[in-house]
Specification:
- By secondary structure, the protein is mainly β.
- The protein has 1 helix and 8 strands.
- The chain has one domain: Lipocalin.
- The chain has an 8-stranded antiparallel β-barrel with strand order 1-2-3-4-5-6-7-8.
Length: 132
């Protein structure tokens, strides 16, 4: 009887360990932080005083990256790195402009404390708010 109980406990323990090791979980149990950024966003741009939309999707090439379509209302896509609730666009080309920026997600709002876009003739520093 003791052997049967020991075997049962070992099998139960083994199955619990096996279940906890699935590919969708991470070490901290938080899942993919990029998911909170994915979707359609309405943008209020302080610089241009324009409202426009952007779409954020997951990157297939980098597990920390998202793709922002129509960043700065330029009609181009840029790559951004997500770390927790922060999002960063490293300096990169977007059509005839070069863009960069940093934002913070709070609920369903991304506040861009700073984003830059520059061409050969001008450089502009802006702020913007993305709302879902």
């Amino acid at each position: 009887m003791k052997k049967l109980i020991i075997i049962f406990v070992l099998l139960l323990s083994g199955s619990l360990i096996w279940q906890s090791c699935d590919k969708d979980s991470d070490l901290l149990g938080g899942g993919d932080s990029r998911e909170s950024f994915v979707g359609n966003w309405a943008v209020a741009d302080e610089c241009s005083k324009q409202s426009y939309g952007v779409d954020i999707t997951l990157s297939d090439n980098n597990s920390a990256e998202v793709i922002i379509m129509n960043f700065a209302n330029l009609g181009k896509s840029v790559n951004a790195i997500v770390a927790g609730s922060s999002i960063t666009v490293e300096k990169q080309p977007a059509g005839e402009y070069t863009v960069s920026g940093h934002g913070k997600l709070n609920g369903s709002v991304i506040s861009w404390s700073s984003y830059d876009f520059e061409s050969q003739s001008e450089a502009t520093k802006c702020t913007a708010v993305f709302k879902k």
